[in-house]
Specification:
Order of helices and strands of chain B: EEHEHHHHHHHHHH
Strand content of chain A: 25-35%
Radius of gyration of chain A: 32 Å
CATH class of the largest domain in chain A: Mainly Beta
CATH topology of the largest domain in chain A: Immunoglobulin-like
Oligomer: heterodimer
Strand order of the largest sheet of chain B: 2-3
Largest sheet of chain A: 5 strands, mixed
Number of helices of chain B: 11
Shape of chain A: elongated
Shape of chain B: elongated
Number of helices of chain A: 5
Order of helices and strands of chain A: HHHHEHEEEEEEEEEE
Radius of gyration of chain B: 25 Å
CATH architecture of the largest domain in chain A: Sandwich
Number of strands of chain B: 3
Structural class of chain A: alpha+beta
Largest sheet of chain B: 2 strands, parallel
Largest interface: A-B, 44 and 64 residues
Distance between the termini of chain B: 52 Å
Strand content of chain B: under 5%
Strand order of the largest sheet of chain A: 2-11-10-7-8
Helix content of chain A: 25-40%
Structural class of chain B: mainly alpha
């Protein structure tokens, strides 16, 4: 005998209700299963779940998914890691006569002042040829807080050259080949970038 | 997209000094957060890092239930949790705003790790691994929930229901499911019937999949269909079982 349409609909609905009420009812929730994997459950719970997992293909699949997920290195998009913290400094035209008192030995005529937010970077030639000196000032912060921070000089060709800020915010590079360089200065919240700096 | 791969656990230095002459426990939360941020950036550049500052923030948040410390954790690790979400295979199945998953993952971490459990986490990598587990479990719970057919989108879940803790919802669901199953089990006459009903509804398998798993119990896939139909007709007429189901 053919079942009526309404009877079939009722039959299908009954199946849906059973599925909705019973689906994975006897499985540990995903978090408990995860704690089992990380071995942070007490002995009784651990035994209970181990027993369940032996007979439950779906939980074994969930465990494999979790293991793969935990083992995979985390891909931090560059937008999160880099772009948010790389700040390009802009060149300022400085009023004549401004004292670069903190910049050791630089000739004022050749100095350049860059600004990025409350960070000011003054750079200029050092005493010898192929040398570069600079001074970093961060808002009202004390210069001691800058001591030891990394400064990198990136030539167009070749490897980066590393230096650090001293406890007055100074940095220095010597024996540089003539080239066009970029400068990166690591600060607590950002990397300040000077994109083009010509050393003759 | 240029991506950097990171796995917490490498290049760990141990903090033995002090900042401005203060011990780690005396540092104000703002200074700790600054140092934690700095060390995390250092790590993301592949340089050796010092975990003690970030770990101290977790300790204050979890053990002392310090709200400011918790806020610092959320600020510091939000981007990493977002990356975890994007990386999970289930994220594409349960599309919701990223912030929703980030908030739920942190909420689950907060609920699951109290002062009594903090000692189970010896270092920062262990804490971050647990945070990653929280991302996995909130996503997988949602996948299970949707597969059961209870909701199609979180937008359809009433605010009052969302306020219930995940654990509470899960416990209630398991309890009623177990009671229903006990009532059903009384009506089943043999192992074949039990497998058919259990795998059909508790595991959502098709008759062909059930036959594949237990070929010794059934003559054919059609046999599975026949048994399923007969049992369901019987269960449908059972008032005791219907009482467990929505009217």
């Amino acid at each position: 005998m053919q079942a009526s349409g309404s009877d079939e609909a009722g039959f299908a609905q009954f199946q849906e209700e059973l599925r909705s009420s019973l689906y994975r009812f006897d499985c540990p929730d995903a978090h408990t299963l995860g704690e089992y994997e990380l071995d942070v459950l007490d002995a009784d719970q651990r035994l209970r779940i181990a027993t369940h997992v032996v007979d439950c293909e779906e939980c074994r699949v969930d465990l494999r998914t979790l293991r793969d997920f935990l083992a995979a290195p985390t891909h931090i998009p560059e937008s999160i890691v880099e772009r948010a913290r790389r700040v390009v400094a802009t060149l300022l035209t400085s009023p004549p006569g401004l004292a670069y008192g903190g910049l050791r030995g630089a000739a004022a005529s050749a100095t350049r002042v860059f600004e990025a937010g409350d960070v000011t970077v003054t750079v200029g030639p050092g005493s010898g040829s192929g040398s570069l000196i600079g001074l970093v000032v961060v808002g009202d912060s004390s210069p001691e807080a800058l001591g030891g921070r990394s400064v990198r000089l990136l030539p167009r060709h070749g490897q980066p050259i590393h230096s650090t800020l001293d406890d007055l915010g100074n940095f220095e590079f010597n024996d540089l080949d003539p080239d066009q360089y970029a400068v990166e200065i690591d600060l607590p919240d950002s990397i300040i970038v000077i994109q083009e700096l010509r050393i003759d | 997209m240029n991506e950097a791969s990171h796995s917490f656990g490498a290049y760990v230095l141990s903090y033995t000094g002090s900042a401005n002459g203060m011990g780690l426990g005396e540092l104000p939360i703002g200074e700790l957060a600054r140092r934690c941020r700095e060390e995390t950036l250092r790590f993301l550049r592949g340089e050796p890092r010092e975990d003690a500052f970030c770990f101290e923030i977790f300790q204050r948040a979890v053990v002392k239930r310090d709200d400011d410390a918790w806020e610092a954790i959320v600020t510091q690790y939000r981007g990493i949790v977002l990356a975890y979400v994007g990386q999970h295979t289930s994220a594409a199945l349960v599309r919701e705003p990223d912030d929703y998953w980030v908030n739920r993952a942190f909420q689950r971490f907060w609920s699951a790790v109290g002062p009594d459990r903090f000692g189970s986490f010896p270092d920062l990598p262990a804490l971050l691994k647990y945070l990653k587990l929280c991302v996995h479990s909130v996503l997988l719970d949602e996948v299970r929930s949707r597969r059961a057919g209870s909701v199609t989108s979180l937008d359809e879940v009433p605010e009052t229901a969302r306020a219930d803790s995940d654990a509470e919802r899960s416990a209630v669901g398991n309890l009623s499911g177990q009671q229903l199953w006990d009532a059903i089990a009384e009506e089943l006459q043999n192992e074949a019937e039990e497998k058919v009903v259990h795998l059909s509804f508790a595991r959502d398998l098709k008759p062909a999949e059930i036959f594949q798993r237990h070929p010794h119990l059934f003559a054919s896939v059609d046999d599975v269909y026949r048994i399923k139909r007969n049992v369901l007709e019987r269960l449908r007429r059972n008032a005791n079982i219907r009482a467990f189901l929505p009217a």
